[in-house]
Specification:
The chain has about 250 residues and is α/β, with parallel strands linked by helices. About 45% of the residues lie in helices and about 15% in strands.
Length: about 250
């Protein structure tokens, strides 16, 4: 009882210490550690993924409380697709259910981002249809669900988009090469039209991006947390925000 009270007091003081004027508009999260969390309990990987999905619902509520505009959650990478088919199928079903919960809540504008060609047509159709139901929620937090996502693949897809548009306009390769700009690539990213992430959080103690939002993270601040994602607490989130607010962001200047 006393420990819980002390925790609540600490959490309250942390939240009160944050300056709303310097908090990130867009937060990216690499949800790492679900499988290791499950293994520690002698449970199958699917139990870790389910616990991780439950934590997503908590996290989005915390992010909403501090007026975050965009959250990008990396739930499944292109590299992860090489895992055992049974685990991937179970994880995709968990993601499908998670998207359904987010849509039913009416609190989020959901977008699925990633290479859809690597996923089953049924899954792509189902989550795409659900996400489309939220397109009219213009004032809601934008939640990007990154599934089948890889940063290198996103850049390949962006370049393909630039070339396709040029071909549709009857432009030559030489013309595209001579005029290609940063904005051309940015306008063809999965997150086009959204602010770049100012803060990227990775759980489980790993200290690398693994290709997450390669283009968009050029000026991002990183926060690495030792906790496995299912055990990530609100106080961990507030610590990440405190760390971000204490940094001097020069943005290359």
């Amino acid at each position: 009882m006393q420990a819980n009270l002390l925790y609540e007091v600490y959490e309250f003081r942390l939240q009160r210490s944050l300056d709303p004027g310097v908090l990130p508009r867009h937060i990216g999260v690499i949800l790492d550690g679900n499988r290791r969390w499950a293994k520690a309990f002698g449970s199958p990987a699917s139990e870790g993924h389910r616990a991780g999905a439950d934590k997503v619902l908590d996290f989005l509520q915390w992010a909403d409380e501090v007026k975050t505009e965009v959250v990008t959650l990396w739930l499944l990478s292109t590299d992860n697709l090489s895992r055992e088919p049974q685990e991937i199928n179970e994880l995709l079903e968990i993601i499908r259910q998670l998207v359904g919960h987010l849509v039913e809540s009416g609190n989020y504008r959901v977008k699925i981002v990633g290479d859809m060609t690597q996923l089953s047509p049924e899954f792509v159709e189902d989550v795409g249809r659900e996400a489309a139901k939220t397109s009219g929620l213009s004032d809601a937090m934008q939640v990007n669900i990154a599934v089948g996502y890889g940063g290198r693949q996103e850049l390949v897809d962006a370049v393909r988009g630039v070339l396709k548009d040029a071909a549709d306009e009857g432009r030559s390769i030489e013309d595209v090469a001579s005029t290609l700009s940063v904005d051309d690539i940015t306008e063809h990213l999965y997150t086009r039209g959204q602010p770049d992430p100012e803060l990227i959080i990775r759980t489980s103690g790993e200290q690398r991006l693994s290709g997450f939002l390669l283009w968009q993270s050029a000026h991002s601040e990183y926060y690495f947390c030792e906790t496995f994602w299912p055990d990530f607490r609100k106080v961990d989130f507030l610590r990440a925000l405190r760390s971000f607010s204490q940094r001097e962001r020069r943005l290359g200047k």
